[in-house]
Amino acid sequence: MHRRKADRVGAVWLFDRDARQWADWGFDYVKVDWNPNDVPTTERIRQALDDSGRDIVLSISNAAPYKQVEELGKLANLWRTTGDIQDHWGSVSGIGFSQERWQKHMRPGHWNDPDILQIGKLGKPNQPNTTFVQTQLTPDEQYTHVTLWCLLSAPLIISCDLEHIDSFTMGLLTNDEVIAVDQDPAARPARKAWHRGDFQVWTKELSDGSLAAGFFNTGKEKGVVKVNLRELGLSGAYEARDLWKRADQGTVKGDMAVELNSHGAAMFRFSKKN
Question: Which residues are catalytically annotated?
Answer without folding.
Answer: 33, 84
